[in-house]
Amino acid sequence: MEAESEPYVRLATMRQLHQAVADLNTARSLADTLQTVADGIVTGLGYELGCVNLVRPDGDLVIAAFAGNAAAEALITGRVGSRASWERRLSMGEAWDQLRFIPHTEGWVLLDDDVPQWHTEGPEPRFEDEWHPLDRLYAPMYASGGGRDLLGVISVDRPRNGRRPGAWGREALQMYASQAAIAISNARLRANMQRALVRLEREQQALRASEESFRQAFEYAPSGMAIAEMGGDQHGRLLRTNDALCRLLGRPASVLRRYSFADLVHPEDIGTLLRTSAEGGRAELRLSRRDGTYLWVSLRNSVVADTADGPRFLLTHVEDIEERKRHELNLAHRASHDALTGLPNSAELKSRIGARLCERPHSPAATAIEALDAAYGDVESLLTHSYQADGYEGEAVPAGGLYDHHVHALAPDAEHDDGTKGLAVLFCDLDGFKSINDRFGHHTGDAVLIEVARRLCTCVRDGDTVARLGGDEFVVLADGLGAADAADLAVRLRNAIIPPIRVDGRAVRVGASFGIGWAECGMSVEEVLRSADQRMYVEKRSRSKVHRRAG
């Protein structure tokens, strides 16, 4: 069944996983985080029972949180299973990537070991993938940092659909276990930091011991950390920074103490920083380095409060996410741009044209009264029209509203210049390019395409678009042009392409044929491009082959 409804399963699973992971960030303490992890298994991942087994300092695992059955929670929460028994479980059964599934046909040997367990009787499975009451599924949680230090184990039971999880269900559980491990580690770190800071203020006699504990946790943290002032004239000023943050920003600690994050943040991200500083929480923004460049970071604030005096400090974790951001931007760019020339690709071109078009053709108004009617609806009907307001009953407002703020794209008259400006679509096809590819190879052909793209870009204005449709076809979008302007632009573009192009010491030439079309409301994107393409072929056939040859 899961394969038949795969798109729905993927969407539903991702939504549930997103909500469950989002809930992890709302917990305020380690205990709340552990319980939130267990609750997320039941409410977000579709299992009836969820249990969080946490590794203790001595290596054994204690049941730290349980969800789904109050009787079971009261019976086994706080009970301990030995590390050896758990390692045996995690080496049995079937490995589903990092998950471990032990079917009932193998799990019966575990009934008498010292790991606390709870299961309910049920009917024998009728189908091959049906869940058996004695089936076991475990999701190990490992500490961050790339190692294999076991942090704990999530155990789940009784999927609500009665079947063993499919590929997406397994992936969701594995991703959730990874995020849960991060949340538990962060909760432990925040708890340690908050306790250290409170002791620093309240327990003067234990100052040296607590300062040393805090110093080690702060200084040796793998991510950047800072303590900032809250309130008063020095609000936001950095009081202390660790070595990781100094290396990240390329500034010594003595220099950073002169700044606040507001002095270092990118101007476009100042609003995000202020909201995060005021409310606590997480934000992604850019901080300046010593060399003047900006670095993408994930910034998380925790407000350290004093019971008597209220908020006192802001504890900030700063994580370098530059590589991830660069990867995201690169993926977005690759999806919308041509890999060879770097120009917008066909999909991006169609998106930009489509953004200027609407489905309703534009009809120029003959008179001033008709122009008003076109913009605001018929005046007479507006005067007699009644609306549902203050108890009066009326008709519905027409679709699109009374006010249409869309600026319609128009096509100038090619024969009579009436001053109309429009969005010109110049379709370019290179002449003689195939012979260059055939004679000199694709390496030379690629070099020619790259140079043609560069020349086209130098001839257009900022805001105009030069795109590559594919092969040797290019399209230029230029808004605000009349018919004569577009013809002049086509001449300039053709003249820019004609000069010889040197590739590996060899000079080659290509020509270009241009067709000028216009994007006009009421047309589809395909119709706009087809019109320009057809005019290009008309122009190509109208010129003799001698004038078109190149190479």
UniProtKB/TrEMBL annotation:
Its EC number is 2.7.7.65. GO terms for molecular function: diguanylate cyclase activity. PROSITE patterns: GGDEF (PS50887), PAC (PS50113), PAS (PS50112). Signal peptide: none annotated. Keywords: Coiled coil, Nucleotidyltransferase, Transferase. It holds the Pfam family GAF. The keyword Transferase applies. Residues 210-269 form the PAS domain. NCBIfam families: GGDEF, sensory_box. This is Diguanylate cyclase CdgB. It comes from Streptomyces cavourensis.
